[in-house]
Amino acid sequence: MLGTIVLQSPKKSTHLFLLFHGVNATPESLHPIATMLARSYLHAAIVLVQAPYASDFGQGYQWFSVQGVTEQNRTQRVEMAMPAFVETVRNWQKKTGVNAEQTTLIGFSQGAIMSLSSTQMVEDVLAARIVALSGRFATLPKKGVDQTQIHFIHGDQDNVIDHRISRIAHEALLARGVMTTYDLIPHLAHSVDQTAIMSLFQRLSDGK
To answer: Which residue windows are coiled coil (predicted)?
Structure first.
């Protein structure tokens, strides 16, 4: 068991990238993205975080169970998992000596759900940027996020989390004046391909 992977941690980090995998997966699943980040951001700390609980499905890890998950009970499950998620982000900020303004959260699927939902469930700002890969909010966002950019990257063939859910959230955030983008990747299912990665790095570059 590898656990959380610290891919890069300079003595004096200028930025912190925290990557959160999906349910039933491990940090290793996001290693290709982390490797590219390391080449592009030489002075950034890059950490692939392992979710705290073993998956209900016998492989990988999870922040919350998806067995029997519905639109009605998802929010409660995310809320129960949120304190551990927030503690994880703040602990890595403390370890690397960076603040929220220097932090980017990149999440895939359940990792994106936790990252996005933190903006609705936590009063303090956790990160300056959130990139959601094939993700969604637990429920439609009800408040704006003044100090956080939110970027959605989603495949148009995703049959796990419908891309229209993230588009509606994107539009709701736009209406509240949030800096947000939405990139729909053609022919992509519930996964990350090279086009999605290119979009991710373009959004990171836009925010420099």
So the answer is: none
**What would the pLDDT profile of 17-39 be if each residue is shown by its tens digit?**
999 999 999 999 999 999 999 99
> pLDDT tens, 110-126?
999 999 999 999 999 99
Would you state the structure tokens that stand for residue 96, as one six-digit string? 């690397």
The domain tally of the chain equals: 1
Range of the domain at 185: 5-206
15 has catalytic annotation: no
Q: Is 36 exposed, middle or buried (0-12, 13-18, 19+ CB in 10 A)?
A: middle
Confidence at 207, pLDDT banded by 50, 70, 90: low
Catalytic residue status for 13: no
- State the CATH number of the domain containing residue 50: 3.40.50.1820
117 is catalytic: no
- pTM tops 0.90: yes
Q: Which of 15, 29, 158, 163 is catalytic?
A: 158
Choice among 13, 29, 55, 109 that is catalytic: 109
